[in-house]
Amino acid sequence: xxxxxxxxxxxxxxxxxxxxxxxxxxxxxxxxxxxxxxxxxxxxxxxxxxxxxxxxxxxxxxxxxxxxxxxxxxxxxxxxxxxxxxxxxxxxxxxxxxxxxxxxxxxxxxxxxxxxxxxxxxxxxxxxxxxxxxxxxxxxxxxxxxxxxxxxxxxxxxxxxxxxxxxxxxxxxxxxxxxxxxxxxxxxxxxxxxxxxxxxxxxxxxxxxxxxxxxxxxxxxxxxxxxxxxxxxxxxxxxxxxxxxxxxxxxxxxxxxxxxxxxxxxxxxxxxxxxxxxxxxxxxxxxxxxxxxxxxxxxxxxxxxxxxxxxxxxxxxxxxxxxxxxxxxxxxxxxxxxxxxxxxxxxxxxxxxxxxxxxxxxxxxxxxxxxxxxxxxxxxxxxxxxxxxxxxxxxxxxxxxxxxxxxxxxxxxxxxxxxxxxxxxxxxxxxxxxxxxxxxxxxxxxxxxxxxxxxxxxxxxxxxxxxxxxxxxxxxxxxxxxxxxxxxxxxxxxxxxxxxxxxxxxxxxxxxxxxxxxxxxxxxxxxxxxxxxxxxxxxxxxxxxxxxxxxxxxxxxxxxxxxxxxxxxxxxxxxxxxxxxxxxxxxxxxxxxxxxxxxxxxxxxxxxxxxxxxxxxxxxxxxxxxxxxxxxxxxxxxxxxxxxxxxxxxxxxxxxxxxxxxxxxxxxxxxxxxxxxxx
Length: 679
Hints:
By secondary structure, this protein is α/β, with parallel strands linked by helices.
């Protein structure tokens, strides 16, 4: 009796293995973006999420860690553990990854300015555990371009930052061959309102400039260079316009294949593959009717999973309440279950690309590619992304796109359900309960973090730490690789602030163009005309144009919203002073006093609004300007904090639900009028 031959599946609508048997694709890496409070609390969260079926880690670091400050630095204290986990030294990394086998883990770190440092800490952790670093697998985001344009956690000037990224590629290629030294991040570009064509163009121009740099440095032979191209990954955003976003992903893949083949001569198709992870759009999540966000997240996820030829390799989803606060563990679980149901309960992974042959898809992809090529040519014609950043071109383009988006929402041209259309509804039960659906960091965790930092400093060998810093600085000055000196700094228990401070002394710090100058809004109509007349009358009473200092106190670098407010205020007739991001409350208040401002508009999206506002109010009191200069605050601010801010003397509080620019401008004008009448 002969054994029956295996069934050979010849149906074109199914995926088959080499023997012709129907198979399912492997699901993408399932992650949640998480980290908060302290290394211990974050470790507990990671182990819980892994036990629930998460298949990779995506580490969120707090702003001091991202910007290269120790937790006890004065500018860092209000931000400790607010938007991610604080990491001050290798001791913290041991706590963060306790009982997590890093050699079995795919770990993504959302870190940029201090990316070399965090990778050095991860390598140091592996060495002290006896793990072969060649077994490590993961990504350091390490995309400084998007930091200069959208996110704002840059530290060093672009040229030095690019050098750091290149040195990480040179180290990782042989030492950690499965590690992506950088992750070209277009996610934050879309969060800054980039159009699909801009997202394509800016991200690809960034990657092209990086490969140009690797070529110029001459550290790789042809085979090594091809492998380095294969280690470039992308981190992409997916918005609510499902068809357009899915076509954007296909355009990304095709353009990347073309540029790596034609411009850089990469022969191996494997190394030309567009590899990307994704977090779906947070910009479109609303504070109003937040339950609607669950459906937005689902639809946006389909844009990066339905098309097999352009499917993400890793997906992390925001939670429904991200427009309100950091997600709680249950909120993260809800987003995790969405991915699991899509990957394991549906038949999505059983079929070849279901859009292959679509005339509509082909036409849209070609259109996006043509727009992107035109923009890429423009950027490369300027000398590449560094020149386009230094000139202010790319930043201004994003501020313009954000202004146009907000204008479209204001006019109703762009409908956002629950925000500017169908706003009446039953209050959401999701924001009920004792916590109101909002996560708040335990304030005691900041004290614990600083205590741990002090313990590390007390226990280390100070001579070894000082010697390691000296070697790092010499490498920075001489042009030698800083990677091994950074690893020695990690092993010597040098701290995050010390590592970044040592390089600040050599490289300096960067202050980019704001993108505000020369911008115009499509904001007009009878209300705008009436407000301008009203401001003209107010100017006569004041003896000058009403003057606003738009400020970003603390380390929060999400600047485009503040810049749109600055542009709007100038549009209706205010004198506007805006100096960019990462200013101390003292600097903002001093500027307001020196400029004889009438109002300070402070933007805080990190959750540190109470602490930073208190510092501004205290400083205004020291200057004797507390009654003369009014303060308004905008950001992601829970309703429970409104009364706290009003109690501190704040005149108005604005949140993402306040999308009408003219409403905001009228409200600020009312504040100045009322303040002037009481003097």
